[in-house]
Amino acid sequence: MRLAKFLAHAGVASRRGAEAVIAAGRVTVAGRVVTDPALDVGESDEIAVDGRTLKGAEPRVVYALNKPLGVLSTAKDTHGRRTVVELVPQRGLRLYPVGRLDSDSTGLILLTNDGELANLLTHPRFEVTKTYVAELAGPPVTDRTLRRLREGLELEDGPTAPARVRRLAPRTLELTIHEGRNRQVRRMCEAVGHPVTSLQRTAFGPLGIGGLAPGGWRLLEEAELERLRAAVL
């Protein structure tokens, strides 16, 4: 197994993050600093990060969490603010969120120690969809506004891909996108004259939020994990 993959499976970081850790000279194999992420290693090798010996692959877990308002989508916060990782049982595993939700947004977010799966789910090449329900300010949403969102918009960081959009109420939209730009749904709605007053992610790829209450979580079952993997094959 490649060293970077071993570190990702051991919960150190995503595959890309593991490569950065290795390049920084923080990894030793049998006491020798190694900077080649492609080095072939096995379970019997003594591998350490920052002097801490790894025990090999952790059991892979993925949590679905309904993120409440005001909670940060990060593993740690230097200012002591509440994070999504604190809301699920960590069981000694190093968990991190898959993608992000703004602190003023709510809804479905995944947390895992499977760096490889996390990297695939967030990689632009696979275009994994995310679905949101947005409550909007301003007048009722017109058909013309729906067409503009569906055709794609020009934002300050470039044009958006066409979105799937349907109107749930005069000022409520369901939007499905596959891009992951910063505050993208909010910026799209503001660009058509409808600032977002509340935003909830209701689906990530093939997974829906289901009946999870705010702050509620559950471990994904194997059938759900297979559906996630199928989304990036």
Could you explain the architecture of this structure?
It is built from six helices and 15 strands. By secondary structure, it is an alpha+beta fold. The chain folds into three domains: 51 residues, Structural Genomics Hypothetical 15.5 Kd Protein In mrcA-pckA Intergenic Region, Chain A (Roll); 87 residues, Alpha-Beta Plaits; 76 residues, Alpha-L RNA-binding motif (Alpha-Beta Plaits). The strands form three sheets. Strands 5, 6, 7, 8, 11, 12, 13, 14 and 15 form a nine-stranded mixed sheet that branches. A four-stranded antiparallel sheet has the order 2-1-3-4, with no helix packed on it. It has a two-stranded antiparallel sheet with strand order 9-10. The radius of gyration is 20 Å and the shape is elongated. The two termini are 20 Å apart. The mean pLDDT is 92.
